[in-house]
Amino acid sequence: MKITQQIRIAVAALAVVGVGFSLFEITRVQGPAKNAQVLNQTGLVRGGTQRLVKLELAGQKNDDLIKGIETKIDVLINGGTVTTLDGEVNIAAAKEGPFKTEMLNVQELWKQLKNDLIQRRQNPNLAAKVVQDSESYFDATNKAAFAAEDIFAAGIGTERNLILLAILVQIILAAVVLVTVEQVSKTLQKAVSGVSGSSSQIAATVEEQGRIVSDQTASVNETTTTIEELGASSFQAAQQADASASSAQQALDLSDSGQKTVQETLDGIANLRSKVGDIAEKIMQLSEQTDQISTVSKLVADVADQTNMLALNAAVEAARAGEQGKGFAVVAGEIRKLADQSRNSADKIGTLVGTIQSSINSTVMVTDEGNKTADSGIKLAQDTLNVFQEIATAINEVSIASQQIALSSKQQAVGVQQAVSAMNAINLGAKETATVVSQVKSSTEELTEVAEKLQVTV
Predict the structure, then answer these.
(1) Which one of 31, 74, 359, 456 is most buried, counting C-beta atoms within 10 A?
(2) Which pTM does this prediction carry?
(3) b or e along 247-274 (b: 16 or more beta carbons within 10 Å of the residue's beta carbon)?
(4) How deeply is 406 buried, as exposed, middle or buried, from its count of CB atoms within 10 A (0-12, 13-18, 19+)?
(5) Domains of the chain (ranges plus CATH)?
(6) Residues 42-92 pLDDT 10s
(7) Please, which pLDDT band fits residue 279 given cuts at 50, 70 and 90?
(8) Looking at the predicted structure, is the pLDDT value of residue 199 above 60?
(9) Per-residue model confidence as pLDDT tens digits over 5-16
(10) DSSP 8-state assignment for residue 89
(11) Is 85 helix (H, G, I), strand (E, B) or coil?
């Protein structure tokens, strides 16, 4: 069997034993602890009952203590959780055996003792019976406690035997590992002697490898110079791209300002067109009102004519009446004068309405021309705004392209700088790398032989 296989087996065995011993320790700690809790709770049942009997005989009732004793008895028989100073503890159900038998007896006697205590509260003369039943109960609890102690002692003995067995197995495995390590040490010593013999040949090749390293260093220096020049060009390109991006941004700002100005002009023309429309609407209303005035004026003229005719008829009738109609004739004359004045005023109003109507027609024509001019201005301003938007889009694309060029140039400059740093690092590490490689190459054959020996042995 090879040494490596022996070491693997020994290490695996130690690992298995270590894991088993750890599990055993866990069980060892938990097992006695649980047994100790059983013993402790059994003692608490016994001591708690003694305290309860003393309190009851002294006339002090304690139902909580009765409930606690019943709970502990039930947990010791059927398993469950009890509260201790260290917190809640789980207790397993009692296995078939002396302890469970004694605890079942304790449970039956407790029922009798509890009944005696309750009855004694009503009849103090039952104190003697309480004392008598408590003696039998205490005797049963003592037997249960002894049975719990036996379980605890048995667990301790088993634990001691398992510990001794684990120690013995570990000692045997440790001895096997020591023997195996000793064999490996001797084999490695022989191998080291063979490797030492090849060191002289490695030293002989150092001078030749030094010349090769010098040539490599010169080549790396030339490459570094070229890369540095490329880095300077990239940096200049990045500066120019930044300037182009700045100019494009300024042009974009101016274009935005122009768009705002055109938009303001467009809004002003639209507002003006709206006001001209309002004026046209007012003029139309004025034209309608002028027509109404003309109608009223014609009506007044007709009334004046009719009034004149009526006045003339009244004058004729007054003349026929003679002296009695002179006063009426005067009135008729005045009415004719008033009718003539009304006729003249109506004619003047008609003439004035005609003049106003002519002016309104001219104003309507001028307003219509103003609307057409405003529409043309709005269309022109909208076309100008569209042109500005197209210019802004083009300038924005130029600005983005310039920024990307600048970013790429900067990244390229950074990359070139990193390349220069890498070349310098290569230049510094070339000597060490070349020396190590030459040494490995010169001693390959002898090291191969040593490896073959180690492979056969190990």
Answers:
(1) 31
(2) 0.33
(3) ebbebbeebeebbeebeebbeebeebbe
(4) buried
(5) 3-198 (1.20.120), 206-442 (1.10.287.950)
(6) 888 999 999 999 998 888 989 999 999 999 999 999 988 888 776 788 888
(7) confident
(8) no
(9) 766 786 677 677
(10) E
(11) coil
Closest to 111 in 3D by CA, of 139, 135, 142, 133: 133
Place of tokens 């790396």: 220
Please list the residues that pair with 90 across neighbouring strands: 81
**Whole-angstrom distance, CA of residue 445 vs CA of residue 457:** 19
What is the per-residue burial (b if ≥16 Cβ within 10 Å, else e) of 98-113? ebbebbebbbebbeeb
Q: Per-residue DSSP letters for 200-256?
A: HHHHHTHHHHHHHHHHHHHHHHHHHHHHHHHHHHHHHHHHHHHHHHHHHHHHHHHHH
- How many C-alpha atoms does 224 have within 13 Å on its Cβ side? 16
Place 179 in a pLDDT band, splitting at 50, 70 and 90.
confident
Please report the pLDDT score of residue 29 as a whole number: 43
Name the CA dihedral angle for 167, 172, 178, 180, rounded to a multiple of 10 degrees. Answer: -140
Helix (H) or strand (E) holding 137: helix 127-197
* Number of residues written out for the chain: 458
Q: Which of 455, 267, 271, 283 is nearest to 360 (CA)?
A: 283
pLDDT value, residue 160: 67
Phi, psi of 2 (to 5 degrees): -70, 155
- pLDDT for the residue 206: 47
Structure tokens at 314: 């009244």
- Residue 88 is classified by DSSP as E
